[in-house]
Amino acid sequence: MQAGMLLSWHYLRPVVAQTMPFIRRVHTVLDSGAFSAASLGEHISLMEYGRFLRTSGAVFDWCASLDVIGDPARSYANWLALRRSYPAVVPAVHCGADIDWVRRYVGEGASRIALGGLVQVKATLRKEDSPARRWLEGAFLALQGSGVAVHGFGVTGATIVNAYPWTTIDSSAALACTRFGKVLQANGHHAYAHSTGEYTESAHKIFDKWEVRRRSPTRSNSLAANLAALETVLKPSGDQTLSNATIPSHATDFATIFNHLSRDGASRGQ
Q: How far apart are CA 100 and CA 109, in angstroms?
């Protein structure tokens, strides 16, 4: 497993000037942040995103299109528009959408497709006969033999990771669990801190290194929690890339994370 960073344009945009010097150092994917913006009732400008992809898209390993949650036709229209600025932009098809959208993107030359909308149905993904699993089966069947790379948005559950031939996956689970005194380790298990604030032996080595002193990290030490989580996934085990979605609050947070990743083998070319 090779670690990298998935960044959201929604959160990157305010600090883009300060952050860009660090992005070239490690494997980095750019997501539009459509889901975050929709959750907050905010708007992402297609024109502004397109301008950024035209000038800076090549800096990233790949960049996702601006999808419209629940509207595959508008998502497709956005993809066509963004292709004029950045031909390699990656379309996303969300769970439940007609599989014909997957076939359409393949037919129009997409070299990578992202499958999304899986976080909302994650509780059912372990059941092989669930609608979500049947949809995934249909999507991968449509992609079979196409040579198209497949990214899974919000996918890190072992059942789904191992069931399908993902090229890359991402999830914030490795970071979110630190809020509950846990660190996700490279073997898929958690190292716990007790609710009393005492650490288990396996947890304290990770938490103490990055000075995560509380069971529920505050915003002031959330960066340390992020680094503690990243510490556990920078171990080689297979050929997939785990891109951890993070929301650093300051450009200096980005710098610290990128420096940490590049030291530990996630830098490009390693």
A: 14
Strand partners, 113: 150
Per-residue pLDDT at 83: 96
Which residues, 6+ apart, have CB-to-CB distance to 48 below 8 Å? 13
Place of tokens 């951890």: 244
Note the pTM of the prediction, 2 decimals: 0.74
Question: In the structure encoding, which two tokens stand for residue 104, read together?
Answer: 């359409």
Within the chain, which residues score under 70 in pLDDT? Answer: 1-3, 25, 173-270
What lies within 8 Å, CB to CB, of 158 at 6+ separation is 188
Q: Which amino acid is at 172?
A: S
Contacts of 66 (CB under 8 A, 6+ apart): 32, 34, 44, 46, 49, 75, 78, 82
Query: CA 270, CA 261: separation in Å to the nearest integer?
Result: 11
